[in-house]
DNA sequence: TGGTCGACTTGATGCAGGTCAATCAACGTT
DNA sequence: AACGTTGATTGACCTGCATCAAGTCGACCA
């Protein structure tokens, strides 16, 4: 696996400037010197195999991670309940923001496929942020963006139909792929039906059925984990669809 | 800015040291000088009447607010959908974290009853945070706490029964009241059934029915908006209750 | 004193989607 | 080739809760 010699020597430590995610990653907007200081605190990237855990719930919180390639899921285990999948992380997204200021990681994060992540020791990041207002801003922005994402998710889970949830989910993925330069129409689902179901608060059979229905309506074409969005328009219609729970007050 | 001259006069500008929320508020852990600098950026507290809006969705984002007394709700309006209540804010909680880094406020916040809030212009807060690591830390911590809270909410909305949602909701409120020095057993719901229903992703009739059932089981006593938790144990049992959606994989 | 409004409760009904169960396809593994 | 395993699909059934609808209880006003 790679030539990867010493510890943090050259081949491993990434040059952010060259990274394809440059435009969507944490150090976005940093000056050149700042960028170099930033690069200096990045640990050698970790390679993860499918199913391998990046962080385990309850471990002491020490690092943030940025996904370079591949994808991961976060899930939290609650007392007597089944686990809940809370996030899927795609390249450029930051893992661990929800543990800042806590002693321990509050969810487990595992790779859904082979993945690389950049490791950022949080204390060093914090020190650096002390000197770099831009970096601070980026951190705030990331967290606040995640807050908004979670709220959108809450809206989704709160009284949307299975169709709406799936449609939104697919559109959301599509959008994220587009933003990263991949095709927004045709992609591979790295997560299982069961992960999707859990994430969306549905039974996995329902996910299967709804996808099948979408398919026979000609909205999507799905074969296993290969997904093609044929008719974005109508997907958006499905996602909106003002039925749901009774009106206002 | 010590003896506090002109600007917007004395009675308003709060002394954090004397504030009863001191121990749970943003400036927690600041040194005395730091605290004074912090106080200096607080605008004169706003008084809100029931139903009055503190921020409106889409307005330019400029301030964070800390609730001093009373309570508020945040709701976001989406395209063709009914509004979704995303938060209830109690004294000591910070309004607006989810808009940081955005141009506009992404939800409306209105008072559920007479309320006071401290206004913190965000740019000044940011400048101050540049010099006060403690304050920075507090900001991070607040945001990250909110992230965790949202995630807990997502878990709640994702495949918990109406009973579990209500039970968790009541316990959550109870906990927050306790933390603020109020009775955790007996409190007034400042929000309507419809707000609760919307927040929990239920129909308001369901809320009504479940509360009635809890009452006849002797778990709570509820009369209009006066709520008494009679049997916390059994509420916790209800909140846990491992039924829900099918198990793991 | 009655009228109207808003917040809440209660009853009856139907359906979306959860649950149980069987089957199948794609893999390794031996 | 036979086997187990894991993920996905599909069918049949049943229940929790949304929905529709009516009724109650104040509070406020004329």
What is the CATH topology assignment of the largest domain in chain A? Jelly Rolls
- How would you sum up the global shape of chain A? globular
Strand content of chain A: 15-25%
Largest sheet of chain A: 4 strands, antiparallel
Distance between the termini of chain A: 60 Å
* Largest two-chain interface: A-B, 58 and 58 residues
Number of strands of chain A: 11
Radius of gyration of chain A (Å): 19 Å
Oligomeric category: homodimer
- Known CATH architecture of the largest domain in chain A: Sandwich
Q: Give the ordered list of helices and strands of chain A.
A: HEEEEEEEEHHHEHHEEH
State the CATH class of the largest domain in chain A. Answer: Mainly Beta
Number of domains of chain A: 2
Count of helical segments of chain A? 7
CATH homologous superfamily annotation of the largest domain in chain A: Jelly Rolls
- Strand order in space, largest sheet of chain A: 1-8-3-6
Describe this structure in words.
The structure is a homodimer of 249-residue chains. The first copy, chain A, is of the alpha+beta class and 249 residues long. Chain A folds into two domains: 17-156, Jelly Rolls (Sandwich), CATH 2.60.120; 160-240, Arc Repressor Mutant, subunit A. Chain A has seven helices and eleven strands. In chain A, the strands form three sheets. A four-stranded antiparallel beta sheet of chain A has the order 1-8-3-6. In chain A, strands 2-7-4-5 form a four-stranded antiparallel beta sheet. The termini of chain A are far apart. At the A-B interface, helix 3 and helix 5 of A face helix 3 and helix 5 of B. The structure holds a DNA duplex (30 and 30 nucleotides).
